[in-house]
């Protein structure tokens, strides 16, 4: 039974190979498809690139409940308009406010990030910025050391 299965499989492979190799691949090329593929590939090269001055901001030591703000400045170093589709944070205590209008190539934009100062001790929050770049998203970070109100600043003991 195994021999029959093996022989039958071999015959099928030979038959399929001989049938599929009859047509020349060069005869199957359609000139219109080649032209549209070239146009498509050129359009794919037109992408925006988001270049940030900094991707992390440290607020240092802050008192709990003290609102903080920072601005992440970026430049579109690509060759197509940059459109930010979404900006979200890892927690509700951090609110990103991206620009609504497209950023032209060579132009700069600002992403305002507000942090309400909640948490305790060392806190790190991430902001994910989704845009029409090749990567699709960028990750920004804010961090702070949050002290309880009236707490003594941490430091070395003498």
TrEMBL record:
Domain of life: Bacteria
Membrane spanning stretches: none
Cross-referenced InterPro entries: DUF1573, Ig-like_fold
Any matching Pfam family: DUF1573
Name under which the protein is recorded: DUF1573 domain-containing protein
Organism for this UniProt entry: Flagellimonas lutimaris
């Amino acid at each position: 039974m195994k021999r029959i299965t093996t022989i039958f499989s071999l015959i099928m492979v030979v038959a399929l190979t001989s049938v599929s190799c009859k047509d020349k691949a060069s005869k199957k090329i359609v000139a219109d498809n080649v032209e549209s593929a070239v146009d498509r590939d050129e359009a794919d090269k037109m992408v925006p690139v988001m270049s940030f001055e900094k991707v992390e901001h440290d607020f240092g030591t802050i008192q709990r409940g003290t609102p903080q703000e920072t601005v992440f400045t970026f430049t579109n170093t690509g060759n197509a308009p940059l459109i930010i589709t979404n900006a979200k944070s890892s927690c509700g205590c951090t609110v990103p406010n991206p620009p609504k209008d497209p950023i032209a190539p060579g132009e700069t934009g600002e992403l305002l990030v507000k942090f309400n100062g909640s948490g305790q001790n060392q806190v790190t929050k991430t902001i994910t910025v989704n845009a029409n770049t090749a990567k699709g998203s960028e990750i920004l970070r804010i961090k702070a050391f949050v002290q309880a109100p009236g707490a003594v600043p941490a430091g070395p003991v003498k």
